[in-house]
Amino acid sequence: MNWYKRASEKTLYIMRGIAGSGKSTLAKEVGVGGVVLATDDFFTVGDEYLFDPTMLTDAHLWNQGRAIDAMKRGISPVVIDNVNSRAWEAKAYVESGIKYGYQIEILEPNTSWKFDADELAKRNTHQVPKEAIEQKIKEWEPDLTVEDILKSERYPKETIAVTATNWYKQAQQQKIVSFDFDDTIFMLEFDPENENYKKDPLTEMPIGTPNPKIVALINQYNQDGWKVIVVTSRMNKYKDQVEDVVRELGLPIQEIYCTGGEDKVITLMRLGVSKHYDDDRFEISAIRSKSNIEAIQV
Questions:
Q1: Phi, psi angles (nearest 5°) of residue 276
Q2: Per-residue pLDDT reduced to its tens digit, 207-253
Q3: Per CATH, which fold does 3-168 belong to?
Q4: pTM higher than the cut 0.90
Q5: Where are the beta strands (DSSP E) in 165-286?
Q6: CATH code 3.40.50.1000 for 176-297
Q7: If DSSP codes are grouped into helix, strand and coil, which group holds residue 31?
């Protein structure tokens, strides 16, 4: 473990570990009360991991941008849950950590299989092939310190941290507004006898009515040139129900995303959303504390 000593209690953890090594499990443990930020989050929507290698640069810039944003806000701890096999891969995060007064600790899992390609291929959750894992093992720079990371050379004169900040600001300036679905766009009817929402016995569709104020808002945003999307905490298998209601109401919704019960803030940031409407006060609180997105409670 390596610390960059500052007169501050704020901590930035730089995780290191190959896919399947237990790195993310450790990141969640040390990240309690703060934020855990992984580049892989860019490719994750709900319970689906949709990796696109052509978007990898954008994904890294996005993650660096939101890390900078979290540090500007003084959130602690900030945990960077990336592989970081080489020193330069963590440089933008470390430079930003120093700039914003964070103590920096480098952490690796102590699992016995962390350099066993066969075992890593079996254990990793994103189906990273053995060949790619073997390449990461070859690239691995052991015993990195903060000083090693700061001395590493990779970027042009305009550092990736500056580029990331600009990219993130640009994303936040896009005219994208999102709406929750249940009890925001569509007001569900509650059955007090069964202590659950009412469903049509034939179609299993939830029974409810559209929220006229939100429907009017959606149409107004569309007329004003905004991209309007739905981000719901539903599981992806229920996405078709949302699509059916949107179609029946004739709403100008361009895209629908299901987060599978996970906090919406990561998906909203990945999509570059500027405003989000939701009935859930916990979602609103998470969005306000972890991002610059304007969160409006319905």
A1: -140, 135
A2: 889 999 999 999 999 999 999 999 999 998 889 889 999 999 999 99
A3: Rossmann fold (3.40.50)
A4: no
A5: 176-179, 186-188, 190-191, 196-197, 208-210, 227-232, 255-258, 275-278
A6: yes
A7: coil
